[in-house]
Specification:
single chain, three-stranded antiparallel β-sheet, two-stranded antiparallel sheet, 10 helices, 36% helix
């Protein structure tokens, strides 16, 4: 089983020159483009002098993703937490050495589900007047930002509560402390003392705990294929993107800096080589294999039941099922857009399909068909 990663560039990039701006419903749209892969991809200390930590102000957006919050706190993306596709992708390459195509998939998913792909802006936190609703309010009166529950953000987080239970946006000390109990049981010995280095066994135990706790406490618990894929991949980034590139270790102090303080650790170096979806997928696949759970959700009686499989060919693998579920979480109204808006939507959905098509049997594109205004 392989997790989603991009192997080719979207075909939408290979065409005649098109206008880069356009006005619809009073909004000025901007053509989204794929920046080039960074040329310097080796070991590098992060941050540099140009990116000091500055705590966010009261009007700055922050959300459920420690990596995005850290990038904003250091100015790798705009400090107000409102960024474009290209700004986020370039920052991920620079600060975390995330490979271009792997980062593009993650940002595309966010932009399609909780951003405004016409004006090419997304909030890394909640609703912001700087990110208007889609032209004509075709997806409701707000974009929501990545903190809005559903579509992309979901249940069984490592450090945020389920939206039904509590605060799904801000760091929760109690949840992280419970995660650290698993580190104490299963972690590797490190420079800070016994069992202070995260490993796959720790991530497995953490995710088992997150899922079990939330399934029991949240009557609306949902762990569908896309969310399962994302949750296991997010956990794997602890080992592959957050670890110090000089030691390849994700220690208690390093992860605490990212999760609790949302700042780069002292004397931290990014990975020595680009972090690809294939690399990150190794640990993610190990987590999934160790947790005997099919994608599903709680029924009316609070019992977790498996989701029915999607139609062929998207039932050929977990990656294809996650791709189908992904399309079900992007508003279908985006398919009927025109002009530059449609070009941006085609570009972003093309990224998703190119990622899915790297998996055997997942070779038919499915366009977004999710509900609007949710």
């Amino acid at each position: 089983m392989r997790f989603l990663f991009i192997s080719l560039l979207p075909a939408v990039l290979c065409g005649p020159a098109t206008p880069t701006t356009e006005v619809q419903h009073g909004q000025t749209g901007t053509l989204i483009v794929l920046p080039p892969q960074a040329t310097e991809t080796g070991l590098k200390q992060i941050p540099d002098a140009a990116h000091p930590f500055i705590a966010p102000g009261p009007d700055d957006q922050r959300g459920p993703c420690p990596a995005m919050n850290t990038l904003a706190n250091h100015g790798f993306i705009p400090r107000n937490g409102i960024a474009s596709f290209e700004e986020i992708l370039v920052a991920m390459m620079e600060a975390f050495n995330i490979e271009l195509r792997t980062g593009a998939l993650m940002v595309a998913n966010n932009m399609l589900t909780r951003g405004n792909p016409f004006v090419n802006k997304i909030s890394i936190g909640g609703v912001s007047p700087l990110v208007p609703p889609l032209p004509g309010n075709i997806d409701g009166p707000e974009t929501g930002g990545i903190a809005k529950h559903g579509r992309f953000e979901g249940d069984a987080s490592m450090t945020r509560a389920d939206a039904f239970i509590g605060d799904n946006r801000d760091f929760q000390d109690v949840l992280y402390d419970l995660d650290l109990l698993q580190l104490g049981k299963f972690g590797d010995s490190g420079p800070e003392g016994n069992n202070t280095v995260f490993n796959v066994a720790t991530l497995i135990a953490m995710k088992q705990q997150n899922i079990a706790m939330d399934q029991a406490a949240n009557p609306e618990f949902k762990f569908a294929a896309q969310r399962m894929n994302g949750a296991y991949a997010e956990a794997s980034f602890i080992l592959n993107a957050f670890a110090n590139g000089t030691t390849k270790q994700a220690t208690l102090s390093i992860i605490g800096s990212f999760f609790r303080n949302q700042t780069f650790p002292d004397q931290w170096f990014r990975a020595a080589a680009p972090v690809t979806g294939a690399i990150n997928g190794v640990a993610a696949a190990q987590i999934k294999a160790a947790i005997p759970l099919q994608p599903g959700r709680n029924n009316a009686q609070g019992v977790f039941v498996a989701d029915p499989p999607p139609p062929a060919p998207w039932n050929s693998s977990f990656a294809c099922t996650a791709y189908f579920d992904q399309a079900a979480n992007v508003p279908g109204v985006l398919v009927n857009t025109t002009g530059l808006f449609k070009q941006n939507v085609d570009f972003l959905t093309g990224i998703q399909f190119t990622a899915a098509s790297a998996n055997a049997g997942c070779d038919q594109q499915i366009l977004p068909f999710g509900p609007a205004g949710v």
